[in-house]
Amino acid sequence: MNMMQALTAVQAELAMVEQEMYRLIDTRNSFLQESARYFLRATGKRMRPALVLLAGKCGRETMGENSIRAAVALEFIHAASLVHDDV
Predict the structure, then answer these.
(1) Where are the domains of the chain?
(2) Highest mean pLDDT among 12-26, 38-52, 70-84
(3) Which of 64, 71, 84, 86 is placed for a possible disulfide with 49 were both Cys, Cβ 3.0 to 4.6 Å?
């Protein structure tokens, strides 16, 4: 299996990760909301969450919600480290 096949195998779950990330940044503060959305739109292929999701599929036919949450958490930690590195 090459990387593109691996990404295709978790494409539906990656969409769920993306949806959950946008849900979690929802806020009444319009400046903060737009800044967070800008940052999420500027990201790459979501390789880290994809690896978490692929690991979650090992030995299982279905993926649990914990894999989605772990993928979201990892992507937010990565994003925070990038912001912190720029400061």
Answers:
(1) 3-86
(2) 12-26
(3) 71
